[in-house]
Amino acid sequence: MTSVPASVPATDPAVYDAYQAQWATLPDSRDGWLARAREVAEVLGADAAQRDQDNKSPRAEIVLLKHSGLLKLLGPKKYGGGEQPWSVGYQAIREVAKGDGSIGMLLGYHLLWSTTANVVGTPEQIERTHERIITNNYFVGGAVNPRDSDLKITSEGEEIVFDGAKFFNTGGVVSDLTVLEGVLEGTQEHIFALVETRQPGIQFAHNWHNIGLRLTESGGVKIDHVRVPWTDALGWDATSKTPRDDVLKVPFAGLLLPTIQLVFSNFYLGIAQGALDFASKYTVSTTRAWPFGGDNKPSATDEFYILERYGNFFAHLRAAEALADRAGEELTGLYRDHLANRAGLTGRHRGEVAEWVASVKVVTTDVGLRVTAGVFEVTGARATSLRVGLDRFWRDVRTHTLHDPVAYKNRELGRYTLLGEVPAVTWYT
């Protein structure tokens, strides 16, 4: 794993040593994997508020994910992976996010970047990438921020060279491999490649000091003359140095965007579910009934407005979960049916599934913000204490739901509803 500089405070992996033996065997079923994710969430949830306030680089938490096997959840069994579908991956992200939104987000991004070759790689690159990541139990970060097209690529013989910077990256500081993305000089063609994180040409700014998702190491990074063999340019022909039409010029290549958008929605949902669970325990144990209402109750759990709010939050979260699971199944179906036959996926079908994903994004953004802010109304003034840590749930959801404006998802869905239009493939649809 990349070493966090001594000048940057980091959590100590030794605190999770016992779990390496406890989780030595990988789960072998959907239920087993989700049970493992819940165990990880329970471990993380025990001190999540304190770790959030300490704001240390999450070196130990990445080691915990490695011990759990969750980094291998989607990988082929022949290399030691769990070979689970994305539908299970999304549910596992959600479970981990209930305990710690930052680590749920890091797991989600890892699962996306570690399977990027499935979408934009050649068959040979898919196999080579899986073997490398799964057999080494690598954690993968990503310096991919498409709004800032500030990584330039030049071709030098049998290599390509990345230069530039990214204002945001995710998890790179604590990663083993980093996905780089840039534009090839003299073209408008983008190239993705996985590189070793621990090299002089990758220099992290260590400047992630935002209000939420504080343990995601999502700050800036400078890329200085990082060299990559042409054979590692995902989806490109290394001989002709051109993009493969059968890989990058078909609708299947556009699945990368709905796949990661659904990652986002699932950790929003998990964070909101975690907030409701955390608040519920606090209300039962600590919240006092209001004694000046004229219809006084002996305990907070008898208060009508408290019961009504919790019931309403629960109903909306349950509905959001059902929608998220349906979208996960729809996307899983595209991978199942078209990974071996990419040309068989039409743009229309891809777009219709993207609208399932957009629907989840809208709903989980709305309900996530509403629940994580609303739980304060049913826990009381003392729940605002930093010692309680209830604020982290809202801060986490508020931070990432600004990733791309949800208003555009609403507009996109409006055009689909009124005009039958599916979205064009972009960096955000």
Automatic annotation (TrEMBL):
What's the superkingdom here? Eukaryota
A Pfam short name: Acyl-CoA_dh_2
Could you tell me which residue ranges the Acyl-CoA dehydrogenase/oxidase N-terminal domain spans? 39-135
**Claim: Transferase is one of the keywords in the record:** no
One GO MF term attached to the UniProt entry: flavin adenine dinucleotide binding
Task: Outline the extent of the Acyl-CoA dehydrogenase C-terminal domain.
Answer: 262-403
Alphabetic keyword roster: Flavoprotein, Oxidoreductase
An individual GO BP term: L-leucine catabolic process
What is the protein name stated in its UniProt record?
Thermophilic desulfurizing enzyme family protein
